[in-house]
Specification:
6 helices, globular, Membrane-bound Lytic Murein Transglycosylase D, Chain A, two-stranded antiparallel sheet, GMP Synthetase, Chain A, domain 3, 2 domains, 21% strand, 3-stranded mixed β-sheet
Length: 145
């Protein structure tokens, strides 16, 4: 396991309660969780400032200084939650830009917490992938819910 992977595992474990809280919130889109600049980066979009503040409250419960975390949490006021249109909500997918060293298993672990869910990502990207072992840096993959 590389140093970066060890750091990701360690920080993901530390902030697991925050990640679980985010995943439980309706209409919150967790876009990615990875190591950037030696810190855990959590990027998410929330439907309101209230939800954003509750996520920050969870972060502060874990570590009030959050020196090893960068949380990029934005409010999407376009209102996929207020539209009330379930078809529109299911259409909104997360995306991820492949970086050097990534695998579908690694991306699956990051988004779903389980590496074995990689096939879900592969199936959602059949239009650009012919083999789950052949992804390239720079590709933008759809990450289904």
């Amino acid at each position: 396991m590389t140093e970066q992977n060890q750091q990701l595992a360690q920080l993901t474990s530390k902030y697991q309660s925050v990640l679980s809280f985010v995943k439980q919130q309706p209409d919150v889109r967790l876009q990615n969780v990875h190591i950037e600049g030696g810190k855990l980066l959590i990027r998410a979009t929330t439907p309101s400032a209230e939800v954003k503040n509750r996520i920050w409250d969870q972060i502060k419960l874990v570590d009030s200084s959050f020196a090893d975390l960068t949380a990029d949490i934005t409010v999407d006021s376009s209102g996929s939650s207020s539209s009330g249109d379930p078809a529109r909500r299911t259409e909104s997918r997360q995306s991820y830009t492949v970086k050097a060293g990534d695998t579908l298993s690694k991306i699956s672990q990051e988004f779903y917490g389980y590496a074995k869910q990689y096939n879900k990502i592969f199936e959602a990207n059949r239009d650009q992938l012919s083999d789950p072992d052949k992804i390239r840096p720079g590709q933008t993959l759809k990450i289904p819910a």
